[in-house]
Amino acid sequence: MNKKIKNAFESFNHMTVLIIGDAMIDAYVYGTVNRMSPEAPVPVVDVEKREYRLGGAANVARNIKSMGAKPILCSVIGNDSPGEQFNDLMVNDGLDNAGIVQSLHRVTTVKTRIISGGRQIARVDEEIIEPLLKADEDTLFSRIKNLIETENISAIIFEDYDKGSITSGLIQRVVKLGNKIKIPIAVDPKRERFLDYKNVTLFKPNFKELGDGLGIKIPKEHNAILEADVQLRSKLNHEISLITLSEKGVFISDRKSNKTFPAHIRNISDVSGAGDTVIAVATLCLAAKLNTSILAQVSNLAGGLVCENTGVVSIDKQNLLDETLSII
Prior knowledge:
Shape: globular
Radius of gyration: 19 Å
């Protein structure tokens, strides 16, 4: 088994993954709090430093790259100053921007996290969340189609943050194209288009998204989740469900079997970006044709490892491999 896992991790280095979704900038303002504001009952943060990182679907791309594969991010951002900063961050991170569309009708999403004492105390979001205009959707799909035709794509990821870059029409067009040429398609969904992802390979909601997406209340225990998954499968006709359960681990099922793998004990610092890591690692394992049991366990470990860091960070490949080999 160890040899199989090592070979899979090595195979990641030869893969190209297309990531389609809502890309953004994660901004961090670090400072100290020594007093309350005289203007309102809120803390005053004395700023010490600022950091800017790629976030959302771009963080999935960063995780794909950190695992040794080549990511190509496809997204629509604003033709604005943060958009230029976004492109600069892409260059700095060594990412291909061939799939990035800048639109006059959008603003670049920026999430600013205020951090003091190692903890996030507030977040400020700047964004437009309306669906893409048809013209922007057509431009984005044209980029995606061209990349699929010219690159040797190993897998496609939909990373949906409900910010409007993924429309129902785009989903249908990409899934039809991907299935036609047998490219595995993985999805990290949100509520707005939850049931639009029909006929994909892997569907990865978290526990809350599963209940919200189906419009039902689900106890967090295996048999109840299994019943919900049966309902989900009847609506989407997908191959694999990977449902993240936070402190309870992950549930995975295909058309033959199902199992819940418990979480490993961690010193959790920040859960930001954990879902991005899980979908990235799961997709690579899918493309490497690892069985669902190994896929779930490796993804579960990856999500836990990044939670030990403050802020959105990408997975360390060697660290993940070492831990995988010691546990599985």
